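Below is a filled-in request sheet from our internal design queue. Each sheet records the structural input a requester submitted and the sequence that came back. We keep these sheets so that new team members can see what a complete request looks like end to end.

REQUESTER: design group, bay 2
PRIORITY: normal
MODE: inverse folding
CHAIN LENGTH: 246
BACKBONE (tokenized):
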């Protein structure tokens, strides 16, 4: 199931003050993405960052790369509060990254932990992002594969419609040359299922379903989790792609 942008925005706005302390995997993804990107290039003219959030990726990027102009985007204007502390000068486009309208051409479009919410990823990368890239421009992003939060899915049936590593490779290879790709798992452990739920809430990744959970839903979830996953483990399965417009 894909979740509408309004719900994603609401969950992120509620999580932003706790996000950086809890976003362990998103921080690893941002660091890995930049360490691979700089092997390809570390100097850019026009950069567009999608889903900038609290600026985890922005910080990583700015500490290793140079650029002439930076444009950031997020569903929520609150992202600007964080970016103002990182970037001296930048443009901000508030709204859905799937519908950005700009006349600027970019040599880098970059994004961390956001593409999993697109309702039609192929349409977005082919019809929206590709035309915004200069010839030879780079699209560098991280997202997640279907094993992401597999424990939660097995208990609730709730999951986003993640693409597999191979599906993404196929989707991208029509208009882009794949320069780097990686998939890995990262397993987090918690003391209790409630702690795990709090972690998901504080990172805004509780945008898995539309229905609000009742007290009984939470209690049943916690009991089943302890029974099936006594170590209270939660699997993250990130994907990293750096591709170049053909
Ligand atoms: C998991 S956070 C990642 C934030 C940041 N990129 C990082 O490195 O930590 C995802 C961010 O993407 C934003 N987002 C989600 N869907 C979006 C969309 N369709 N368009 C623009 N921003 C979106 C959310 O508001 C949130 O700030």
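RETURNED SEQUENCE:
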């Amino acid at each position: 199931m894909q979740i509408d942008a309004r719900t994603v925005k609401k969950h992120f706005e509620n999580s932003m003050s706790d996000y950086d302390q809890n976003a362990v995997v998103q921080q690893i993804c941002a660091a890995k993405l930049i360490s691979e990107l700089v092997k390809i290039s570390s100097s850019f003219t026009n950069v567009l960052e999608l889903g900038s959030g609290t600026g985890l990726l922005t910080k990583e990027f700015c500490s290793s790369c140079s650029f002439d102009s930076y444009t950031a985007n997020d569903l929520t204007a609150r992202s600007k509060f964080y970016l103002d502390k990182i970037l001296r000068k930048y443009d901000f486009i508030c709204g859905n990254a799937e519908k950005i309208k700009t006349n600027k051409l970019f040599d880098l479009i970059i994004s961390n932990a956001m593409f999993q919410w697109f309702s039609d990823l192929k349409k977005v990368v082919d019809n929206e992002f590709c035309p915004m890239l200069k010839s030879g421009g780079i699209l560098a992003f991280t997202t997640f594969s279907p094993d992401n939060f597999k424990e939660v899915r097995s208990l609730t049936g709730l999951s986003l419609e993640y693409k597999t590593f191979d599906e993404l490779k196929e989707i991208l290879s029509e208009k882009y040359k794949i320069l780097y790709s990686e998939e890995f798992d990262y397993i987090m452990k918690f003391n209790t299922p409630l702690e795990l739920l709090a972690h998901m809430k504080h990172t805004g990744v509780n945008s898995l379903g539309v229905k609000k959970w009742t007290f009984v839903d939470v209690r049943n979830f916690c009991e089943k989790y302890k029974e099936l996953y006594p170590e209270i483990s939660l699997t993250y399965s990130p994907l990293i792609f750096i591709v170049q417009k053909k």
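SHEET NOTES:
- Strands lie at 43-50, 66-74, 91-94, 106-111, 133-144, 176-183, 186-189, 233-236, 238-245.
- The chain has one domain: 5-149+159-188+235-245.
FILED BY: M.R.
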